[in-house]
Amino acid sequence: MQIKVSEFIVNYMERLGIECIFGMPGAHILPVYDALYDSPIQAVLAKHEQGAAFMAGGYAKSSGSVSACIATAGPGATNLITGIANAYADRLPVLAVTGEAPTYIFGKGGLQESSGEGGSISQADLFRSITRYCRVVERVDYLPQVLTQAANALLSPTPGPVLLTIPYNVQNELIDADLLDSVSMATRATPAIPSLPMPPLRDLARLVLDAEHPVIIAGYGSIRSGAHGSISRLSALLNIPVASSLKGKGIIDERSALALGSLGVTSNGHAYRYILEKADLLIVLGAGFNERTSYLWDEALLGGRKIVQVDSDPGQLEKVFHAEIAICGDIDATISALLEEIETRIQNRPDDGATATRVAEEKRTSNADWQIFKSGFSLAEAFFQHLREHFQREAVVFDDNIIFAQNFYDVSEHTNYYPNSGISSLGHAIPAAIGAQFHRTRPCFAVIGDGGFQMCCMEIMTAVNYAKPLNVVLFNNGTMGLIRKNQHQLYNRRFINADFVNPDYASLAHAFGINYKKITQLSDLDALFDTFDLEHTINLIDIEIDKDAFPNYSSKR
Asked: To the nearest whole percent, how much of the chain has pLDDT over 90?
């Protein structure tokens, strides 16, 4: 039986397990939309294509599976770019399907033509550096091979976004429906630890057991691997403190005795100081050691210490430092195998509680910068304390702001915390949180500043249109906070294009048809958490902060 290519593409997405596709229709992609009409895939209408790409990324983060976004040719596709770039940086399996002008008018100046011919923009070239696979489908005869390559990129151990751009006339061509069976959609394979030679594992066990003050640094790779349990067991067995990268928050319960908290230039500095003063071995598990985590690649953080590294991505191994042992493999499987190796040698490392005492003492120690930070942002601190107390399980937090949560929010393995990493695009949190709610409805919080809010606030209506519960936590200071901070500290208070006038947020919430709560004092937070339904409704929570209170990073600069 022959079917249209547009229907073939939709059937392909169904086989990939895609349940939602986020986007906006346009003339050059309507054949695919028409095929979606009869599909179980839910087509979600966003307010802007950038929001659609962020929604797809949020869905992929929440589900761990392939997600999708869709747009028409020209401006529809180019509006996806920031969201797709973010997915590329975060290694998210996002399929982007875009339309294109018909091939028979390539080079003739057709409306929204993006073929790269005749002086038009090249839509595919714009995406080529931010996708794992990118293809303009100009012919039907090789479509199954194209779709196989796309699936390989989406389902690989280190996935990334894929762009398929399909000219309008090709979408309407016919193809044998049975050819879909020839498309390979192998399940995602993960590097297996059984193939790991025993000497590295034994060497790793020896290094860990010989160390007097080892420290685990766990990153997002540990969370992707589901290594919460194995890392907690290793920490408890050998009394090893655990620090996390920003994206690794929650790999162990941050309220536990051996949790050092988040390591990074915008953090409180507890983990940094402990490592400098105590650590003789760093066990780096799925942490990329980027600019934030490494304190701008501070040599003192790694100097004079042995390092071992485990990562499922070979490209991360020894990227920025030399390791005594570097293992490419699944983190959970590797640590589980390490535990078996260690347990054959010891039952438990004797400990008088000294390690936990040292960790607790470090957490009690704070410098003047930290005290200024806490006093300047007491409402932010109180909000995250309330959030932790009232939603100890199942909460989902998408965070544009980062600095407050990194320092004030104790995340556990039961909380899904997603900081705005990737390319750190402002405005990400709201659409990403909405996308996650299409996978599974849970208490969900989008934390954002008022500058970022105005980049994406129209997507609140997407949540309204589809009745997706959401709490938008808005830190309101009438300025681009990080820009104002830098201009205050580095540019002699020469403020330019940082400050702005906000809308009346109460009226805006009323126009959206959602609930609104203004927070100006601690009692307002008590009322919010005691009286508002933060699980089943859409709420705008407006927290007032001082524009002239600046975070002081605990870094060497």
From this structure: 61
